[in-house]
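ping. complex inputs:
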Amino acid sequence: MRKKRLATPINAGSMADIAFLLLIFFLVSTQILNDKGVKVLLPEYTENLPPPNNPGKKILKILINSNNELMINSERSDLILLKDQIKTFIMNPKLNPTFPPNPKKGVISITSDDETSYETYVQVYSEIKQAYIELWKQEALVMYGKGVDFLTREEVIKIKERIPMNLSELEKRL
Amino acid sequence: MKKRKRTNPEISTASLPDIIFMLLFFFMVVTVLRKDSSKLFHELPEASYNTKIDQSKEAAYVFIGRRDINKDKIYVQINDRIISTSNLDQSFEKLVSDPEIDKELFEITLKADRYTTMKLIRQVKLSMRKAGIRHLYYLTENKV
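pong. complex structure:
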């Protein structure tokens, strides 16, 4: 009995090429998410203006004008100096009377002009955030003797209660 | 001696195109169109300290930039629609109007041009806060 050849011998060698082409297409079209940025927690919205400052609180005033120049507490300053100034202000190691007596009473206020560029604002914000992150890392060592990666959720909350990130953002230059 | 080497493949290769099509359909179904394609030109600001952002939960993208690289007019785009500044409040309200979304966990990624004025940024942030959105990411590039 003669064996009937049902299958035509298709050259299967090019199938591998098709598979590779498909793979390369998807490799190229899929973008690996490379986003990086600064995480912000916006304050809750209230109809009324925020309450006037409690007398106990000391404020570090940061002003950014339309030329993206910085002023900290009415002194002309620069972005590089901001982080250390914030850390000294909040922790007040030398017990300066114009600085807050404890970190809970320290407020950082950012006032930007309408024409200030967003980039300067983000740079200022990221410096402020980094200042607090470094303070929290230090506090973690002091309070718990641990690095930040080993903290439990409750410990993180406690540290942030000790050194809260109090920010006040104002509309226009007063 | 007649050497007859059997080189005929036993496996039928006629079904291989079907397998390829199935793979293709699988990828077509699995690949979801991303919301984060921007219609506007923008150059992200540079910041020294930034963390890697992973947007896994309910999220929306807000882009601020120019439509036409030669003109100066700045537009705001939310997800895939360009919104005028007078409609900002309603647009953000609509984003979180779905009862299945938890407003507390809703995150917005902001990809704004580095030269955007703070006036516009403040407007956008205020509209977000009015809608009850609290988590925001400013996307940046690394400062060299």
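The helical segments of chain B are 16-30, 88-95, 118-130.
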